[in-house]
C-alpha cells in the first residue's frame, strides 16, 4: 500500500497577495496532464471519488490544479494491491511498540480491535474524552487543532497541523495524560484502524511512560507552516509522478512522466521565477533533444510577440511566424519542414545565421485559457521531425509553465510596484537598526563577576563581517532571583538594508564587563528574512547559547536560537516597522546593473598576460588557502577569461563583496554562465559553509542531478550533514535528496534514512531531521516502510539487550546473550541497516558471543533467506559513537574510487559501518581475518612471552604461509593493501594504531579498523606522544616484502605508495571538501576549519610529484625505523593478556 496526501491549500486571493506563494504555484500544474487524466476515467471507483474530491476542492476554494493531484492519489491507491500483514508483524514495524516483550506484544495483538471509517468521517474530536488509541493500517488521516476555525463539509475543524498514514498512530496522548482529546482527527480517505483500549494500553505502557511520551513526540514543525507545506507538496508531487512512471502502460505515458520528473528538478524555493524559467528551458534541451528552445511572451495590447535572448530583445507582430500562428489559433503546431509552411518567417534565421528545419510550438495559457506565451522547439537532433510523443510531452510541459509565468507577472509587480510590498532595493538609505530592549539572566550562578553587562552586535555572511561590530553597556537593574538588565538602546550597523544578502546572520554576544575583561555569558543570533523573503519586524525574544560566538561559529552554527535547554537566558529585541512589508528581491534597476563581461578599464593587456602565470596558480589552490586582496581583485577583473574553467567558480564567488548589492548581482549573473563539469567536486565545494547564499546552493544542487546512484552514495553522508547548513527546511538540497531517496529506496533511500536517524539525538537538528524522516516514510511505499520498521525493531531489541548484558560479569555475558536471543522473535524476513541487499531470516544463536573489548560489542551471525548464501557476520556496538568510523570508512571508499579511476587498485578492505543512533551501530566483520596482535602473540604461556613476540619479524610471514595460498598471491595482496593503508592513514592522521586495530586476511590483505582518532589527534601519556611514527610500517611487514629496500617487492611497494600519494594530492580539493561539509556533524575532533588543516599539511601541495614521491619514501624509512611502534605493540599485548 502507498497512500498519498495533500496539504491544505491557501485561497487564491492570499496566493496573489504574497510573493512567498510562488514556489507552491510553480508546481501545482505538474499534474494537469490531460492524457494521464484519462486513466482515472477508466476506473469507476476512482471516478466517484474524483467527483467527491472536486466538489470538496471547489467548496474550499482550492486551486483547480490540485484536483488532478488528488485524483491521482486516489488512482494510485486503487491501482496498487494492499497486502495485509499479520498484527504481530505489523506492530513490529511500528517503533511505538518496539520496547514490548514478545509475550506483551502478543497480548496487545490479541486486544486490538479493527475499525473502519468512511471518507470525511470524524474519528476523534477535540475536547472529547478519550478511551482508545488508533493505529492506522490503511488510509490517510488529517489532524486539526482549533487555533483557527475553518469549515470542511459543514464541520468546524480548526487548523490542519499534521497528516497521518499507514503505520502512524494517534489518540495515545490523552490515554497517557488522562486529559481530554487535544485535537480532531478526520478520515481523508476510507481508513482502517487497529484500536487499543485505554485499560490495555495502561497495563502494558504505564511502567515506561517516559519512553512512550518520547515516542509520541512529533517534530515541532507543523505541516500547516509555509516552508513545510511547500516542501511536502513538492515531494508528494514528485512521488505521484514516480508512481505514474512505474505504472505506465505505454511508452508514451512513461515518457510524459519522465519528462515532468525532469522538469521538477528546475524548481527550487531559493530561486525567483525568472531563474526557474531559465532552468526549465535548459532542462527541456535534454527532454526533447533539440537545437534551440525559445519562449515568446504574448503582449496582446501591443499585438506583439517578444523573445529575450540575453540582452537581445526580438519583437514580432503577434500573428507573424509559426509562433505567431500558434498564439493566434491557440493550437499546438508541429511543422516537419518549415520551407513548406506558409507561416514560417525566415528573416530571424538570416539575422542570426541559423538554419531552421523543423519546429514544434505549443501555446502556454493562463487559468482562464488565454495564451500568455508560446514555447517553441527548433530542429530535432538526428534530422527527424518532432514526433507525436513529443507533442504529448510538450502539452504537459506547457501546462506546467502556465502558472510559472503567472507567478512571474506577480513577481515583476512586486519588484516595481509599491501596492503590496516595499522592495528591499528601494531602501538604499536605511541602515540596519535594532532596538536592544533587555537581557534576562535566568540560569546564571548566584555569584556573578560583575553587574555591568555588555551586548555586542555583529552581522555576518559565511563568517565574514559585513559591518563593524557595535557595543552597548548597562548596569543590571537587579540580580536576584534572576538578572534583569534594561538597555532600551538602538544599535545601528554600518550597512544599508538594500545591501544585505538574503542569508545575513546578526549575532548578539552577551558578556559581563569586569575592568578591561569581557567574560562571556552567552550568545544568540537571527536571520533578517523569513521563508516568505520578508524582512523581520517587531518584537523578538532570543534564547542564548552558553559561551561566545566567534566568526567560525557564526559561519557553521546550524541553530542560532537555543531551544534545547529548559533553563536559558533571554535577550529581547525589537526591529523597526515599515509602512508595508519589506520584501527581498533580486531585481536591480537597469541603471544600476553591471555587465558581467565589462572588465575594469585598467591596463587589460597586462592583466590578461598574467592570467596563465599567476591566476592559474591560485585558482588551483586548495579551499583552505585564503586569497589575498590583490588576488581577489585580479579574479574579479578577469572573470570573463575564467568563465570556461569550472574550478574557478568557487574562487570567484569567494572574491565577491557580499555587503554590496551590485557585487552580489555580479555573482548571480556569473552562476548560470559559468562552465559546468560532471565532476562533483565544484558542486560539493559550493555546498560548504563558505557559500550560504541560496542561489549558489541551488546551482550546486542542480549540478548534482546527473550523478548516478553509485556516485551519489559516495557523498550521501556529507550531503545529509549539509542539510544542517540550509536556512530553511524547504531547500533545493532537501528536495533533491528526498527525490533521489524515493527514486532508489533500497540504496539511496536506505542510506538517507539511517544517516538522518543517527542524528536524531542531536537536539539542534532533531526537529528538522525528524521532518525529513517523516516525509520520506510517508512517501515511500508501505512495504518499504514496514522493512524500515523491522530494521528499527532489530536495533531497538539489540540495544536493550546490550544494556542488560553490560550489567553482568564478563564471563556470564555470552551465555546470557544466547539465552536472550533464544527468546527473541524476529520478523520472518528482514534486512540489516548495514546491508539492504541481503535478506535475513534469523540468527545463528550458537555462534553469538560478547566480545571482550571495553564496550562489549555483540558478535552476531545473521542467517540468509538464500540457502546458498553464507551467514552475515556483524558487530553490534552500543556505547561507541560510530559516526567517526563511518566518516573515515566513507573517505577510504572515496580514496579507493580515486585510485581505481587512475587504474590503481590498492585492494582496500572497506568494510561496512552504519551508525543507527546515539552511540549505536553495526560493523561488518571481514571474513578470514585476524588482528596482528593475535597473530603475533601466538600461544605463549604467559603475557610476557606473548608480548615479546612483537619483536619477531618473521611472525606475519609465517602466518601467511600457513593457509595453503600461493606465496606470490599473498605477497602481492599484502604489497598493494599495505601501501594503500600507509598512504591513507598518513593523510587522514589516523591515531591509536596498535596491533589490535590492524588486521590481516589469510590471502594477505592488510586493513585497519577502529578509527576513534583522526586528523592528527594522537594519544599521549604523561604529556608524551605514544605515536611518533608517520604511519604503521613495522619490520615484520617489511619482512613480507623482502625486508630490504633493494628487493623487487619492496621497490614495488615504494612505487605504489608514491603513486597513490600523488593521486590523493591531485584530488586534495575533494578530500578537504568532504571534511569541511562535516564540520557541523558534532564529531569532537572535527569542530572547526583549522581541524582540517592536517590534510592540507600532509598532502604537501607545494611539492612537485617527484618531490612528493621522494618525501613519502623518506616517511617509509622513518616508519620502518620507529622502534616506538614495536614498544607500543609490546605494551598493548602485555596489558590485554
TrEMBL record:
A single BP term in Gene Ontology: phosphatidylinositol-mediated signaling
GO cellular component: cytoplasm; phosphatidylinositol 3-kinase complex; plasma membrane
Record-annotated Cyclic nucleotide-binding domain positions: 96-205
UniProt-listed Pfam families: cNMP_binding, GAF, PI3_PI4_kinase, PI3K_C2, PI3Ka
Superkingdom, taxonomy of origin: Eukaryota
MF GO annotations: 1-phosphatidylinositol-3-kinase activity; 1-phosphatidylinositol-4-phosphate 3-kinase activity; ATP binding
Keyword line: ATP-binding, Kinase, Nucleotide-binding, Transferase
Location of the C2 PI3K-type domain: 428-581
CDD domains to which the protein is assigned, alphabetical: CAP_ED, PI3Kc
PIK helical domain location: 601-779
Ranges of residues in domain PI3K/PI4K catalytic: 844-1124
Annotated family: Belongs to the PI3/PI4-kinase family.
Protein name (Swiss-Prot/TrEMBL): Phosphatidylinositol 3-kinase
Amino acid at each position: 500500500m502507498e497512500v498519498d496526501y495533500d496539504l491544505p491549500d491557501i485561497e487564491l486571493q492570499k496566493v496573489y497577495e504574497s510573493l512567498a506563494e510562488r514556489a507552491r504555484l510553480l508546481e501545482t500544474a505538474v499534474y494537469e496532464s490531460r492524457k494521464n487524466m484519462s486513466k482515472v476515467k477508466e476506473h469507476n471507483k476512482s471516478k466517484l471519488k474524483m467527483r467527491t474530491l472536486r466538489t470538496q476542492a471547489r467548496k474550499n476554494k482550492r486551486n483547480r490544479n490540485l484536483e488532478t493531484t488528488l485524483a491521482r492519489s486516489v488512482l494510485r491507491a486503487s491501482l496498487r494491491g494492499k497486502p495485509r500483514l499479520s498484527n504481530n508483524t505489523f506492530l513490529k514495524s511500528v517503533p511505538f511498540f518496539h520496547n514490548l516483550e514478545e509475550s506483551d506484544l502478543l497480548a496487545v495483538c490479541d486486544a486490538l480491535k479493527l475499525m473502519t471509517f468512511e471518507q470525511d468521517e470524524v474519528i476523534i474530536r477535540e475536547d472529547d474524552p478519550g478511551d482508545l488509541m488508533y493505529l492506522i493500517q490503511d488510509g490517510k488521516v488529517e489532524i486539526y487543532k482549533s487555533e483557527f476555525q475553518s469549515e470542511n463539509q459543514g464541520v468546524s475543524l480548526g487548523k490542519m497541523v499534521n497528516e497521518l498514514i499507514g503505520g502512524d498512530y494517534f489518540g495515545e496522548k490523552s490515554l497517557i495524560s488522562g486529559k481530554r482529546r487535544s485535537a480532531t482527527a478526520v478520515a481523508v480517505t476510507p481508513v482502517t484502524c487497529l484500536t487499543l483500549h485505554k485499560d490495555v494500553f495502561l497495563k502494558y505502557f504505564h511502567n515506561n511512560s517516559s519512553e512512550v511520551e518520547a515516542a509520541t513526540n512529533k517534530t515541532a514543525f507543523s505541516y500547516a507552516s509555509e516552508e513545510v507545506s511547500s516542501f511536502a507538496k513538492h515531494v508528494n508531487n514528485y512521488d505521484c509522478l514516480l508512481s505514474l512512471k512505474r505504472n505506465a502502460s505505454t511508452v508514451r505515458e512513461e515518457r510524459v512522466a519522465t519528462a515532468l520528473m525532469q522538469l521538477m528538478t528546475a524548481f527550487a524555493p531559493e530561486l525567483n521565477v525568472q531563474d526557474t524559467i531559465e532552468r526549465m528551458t535548459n532542462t527541456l534541451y535534454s527532454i526533447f533533444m533539440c537545437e534551440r528552445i525559445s519562449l515568446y511572451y504574448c503582449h496582446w495590447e501591443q499585438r506583439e510577440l517578444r523573445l529575450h535572448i540575453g540582452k537581445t530583445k526580438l519583437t514580432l507582430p503577434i500573428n507573424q511566424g509559426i509562433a505567431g500562428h500558434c498564439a493566434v489559433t491557440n493550437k499546438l503546431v508541429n511543422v516537419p519542414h518549415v520551407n513548406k509552411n506558409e507561416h514560417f518567417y525566415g528573416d530571424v534565421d538570416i539575422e542570426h545565421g541559423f538554419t531552421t528545419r523543423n519546429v514544434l510550438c505549443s501555446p502556454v495559457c493562463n487559468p482562464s485559457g488565454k495564451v500568455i506565451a508560446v514555447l517553441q522547439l527548433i530542429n530535432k537532433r538526428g534530422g527527424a521531425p518532432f514526433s507525436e510523443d513529443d507533442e504529448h510531452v510538450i502539452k504537459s510541459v506547457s501546462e506546467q509553465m502556465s502558472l510559472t509565468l503567472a507567478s512571474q507577472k506577480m513577481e515583476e509587480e512586486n519588484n516595481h510596484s509599491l501596492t503590496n510590498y516595499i522592495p528591499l532595493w528601494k531602501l538604499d538609505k536605511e541602515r540596519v537598526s535594532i532596538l536592544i530592549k533587555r537581557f534576562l539572566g535566568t540560569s546564571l550562578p548566584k555569584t556573578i563577576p560583575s553587574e555591568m553587562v555588555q551586548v555586542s552586535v555583529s552581522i555576518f555572511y559565511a563568517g565574514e563581517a559585513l559591518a563593524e561590530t557595535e557595543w552597548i553597556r548597562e548596569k543590571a537593574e537587579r540580580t536576584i532571583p534572576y538578572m534583569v538588565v534594561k538597555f532600551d538602546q538602538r544599535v545601528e550597523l554600518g550597512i544599508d538594508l538594500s545591501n544585505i544578502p538574503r542569508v545575513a546572520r546578526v549575532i548578539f554576544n552577551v558578556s559581563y564587563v569586569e575592568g578591561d575583561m569581557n567574560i562571556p555569558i552567552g550568545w544568540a543570533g537571527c536571520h533578517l528574512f523569513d521563508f516568505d523573503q520578508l524582512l523581520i519586524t517587531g518584537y523578538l525574544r532570543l534564547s542564548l547559547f552558553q559561551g561566545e560566538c566567534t566568526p567560525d561559529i557564526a559561519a557553521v552554527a546550524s541553530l542560532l536560537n537555543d531551544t534545547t535547554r529548559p533553563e536559558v537566558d533571554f535577550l529581547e529585541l525589537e526591529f523597526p516597522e515599515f509602512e508595508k512589508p519589506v520584501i527581498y528581491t533580486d531585481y536591480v534597476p537597469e541603471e544600476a546593473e553591471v555587465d558581467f563581461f565589462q572588465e575594469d578599464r585598467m591596463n587589460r593587456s597586462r592583466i590578461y598576460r598574467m592570467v596563465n602565470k599567476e591566476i592559474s596558480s591560485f585558482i588551483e589552490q586548495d579551499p583552505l588557502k585564503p586569497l589575498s586582496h590583490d588576488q581577489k581583485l585580479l579574479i574579479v577583473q578577469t572573470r570573463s577569461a575564467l568563465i570556461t574553467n569550472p574550478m574557478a567558480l568557487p574562487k570567484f564567488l569567494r572574491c565577491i563583496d557580499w555587503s554590496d548589492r551590485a557585487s552580489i548581482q555580479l555573482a548571480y549573473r556569473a552562476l548560470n554562465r559559468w562552465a559546468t563539469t560532471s565532476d562533483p567536486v565544484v558542486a560539493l565545494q559550493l555546498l560548504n559553509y563558505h557559500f550560504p547564499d541560496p542561489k549558489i546552493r541551488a546551482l550546486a544542487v542542480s549540478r548534482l542531478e546527473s550523478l548516478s546512484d553509485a556516485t551519489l552514495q559516495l557523498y550521501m553522508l556529507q550531503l545529509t550533514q549539509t542539510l544542517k547548513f540550509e536556512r530553511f527546511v524547504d531547500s533545493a538540497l532537501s528536495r533533491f535528496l528526498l527525490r533521489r531517496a524515493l527514486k532508489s529506496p533500497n540504496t539511496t533511500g536506505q542510506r538517507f534514512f539511517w544517516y538522518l536517524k543517527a542524528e536524531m539525538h542531536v537536539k539542534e537538528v532533531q526537529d528538522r531531521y525528524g521532518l525529513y524522516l517523516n516525509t520520506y516514510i510517508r512517501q515511500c511505499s508501505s512495504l518499504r516502510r514496514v522493512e524500515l520498521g523491522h530494521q528499527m525493531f532489530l536495533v531497538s531489541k539489540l540495544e536493550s539487550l546490550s544494556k542488560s548484558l553490560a550489567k553482568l560479569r564478563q564471563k556470564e555475558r555470552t551465555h546470557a546473550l544466547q539465552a536472550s536471543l533464544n527468546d527473541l522473535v524476529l520478523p520472518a524476513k528482514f534486512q540489516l541497516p548495514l546491508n539492504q541487499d541481503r535478506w535475513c531470516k534469523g540468527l545463528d544463536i550458537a555462534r553469538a558471543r560478547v566480545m571482550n573489548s571495553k564496550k562489549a560489542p555483540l558478535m552476531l551471525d545473521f542467517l540468509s533467506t538464500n540457502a546458498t548464501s553464507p551467514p552475515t557476520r556483524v558487530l553490534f556496538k552500543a556505547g561507541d559513537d560510530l559516526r567517526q568510523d563511518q566518516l573515515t570508512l566513507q573517505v577510504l571508499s572515496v580514496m579507493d574510487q580515486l585510485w581505481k579511476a587512475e587504474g590503481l587498485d590498492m585492494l582496500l578492505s572497506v568494510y561496512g559501518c552504519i551508525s543507527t543512533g546515539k552511540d549505536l551501530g553495526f560493523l561488518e566483520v571481514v571474513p578470514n581475518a585476524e588482528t596482528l596482535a593475535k597473530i603475533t602473540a601466538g600461544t605463549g604461556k604467559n603475557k610476557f612471552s606473548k608480548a615479546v613476540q612483537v619483536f619477531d619479524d618473521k611472525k606475519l610471514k609465517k602466518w601467511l604461509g600457513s593457509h595453503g595460498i600461493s606465496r606470490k598471491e599473498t605477497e602481492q595482496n599484502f604489497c598493494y593493501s599495505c601501501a594503500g593503508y600507509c598512504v591513507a592513514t598518513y593523510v587522514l592522521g589516523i591515531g591509536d594504531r596498535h596491533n589490535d586495530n590492524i588486521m590481516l586476511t589469510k590471502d594477505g590483505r592488510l586493513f585497519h579498523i577502529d578509527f576513534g582518532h583522526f586528523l592528527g589527534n594522537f594519544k599521549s601519556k604523561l604529556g608524551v606522544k605514544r605515536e611518533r611514527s608517520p604511519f604503521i610500517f613495522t619490520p615484520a611487514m617489511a619482512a613480507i616484502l623482502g625486508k630490504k629496500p633493494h628487493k623487487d617487492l619492496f621497490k614495488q611497494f615504494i612505487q605504489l605508495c608514491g603513486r597513490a600519494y600523488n593521486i590523493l594530492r591531485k584530488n586534495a580539493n575533494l578530500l578537504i571538501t568532504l571534511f569541511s561539509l562535516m564540520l557541523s556533524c558534532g564529531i569532537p575532533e572535527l569542530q572547526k576549519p583549522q581541524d582540517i588543516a592536517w590534510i592540507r599539511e600532509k598532502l604537501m601541495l607545494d611539492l612537485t610529484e617527484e618531490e612528493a614521491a621522494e618525501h613519502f619514501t623518506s616517511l617509509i624509512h622513518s616508519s620502518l625505523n620507529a622502534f616506538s611502534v614495536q614498544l607500543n605493540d609490546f605494551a598493548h599485548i602485555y596489558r590485554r593478556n
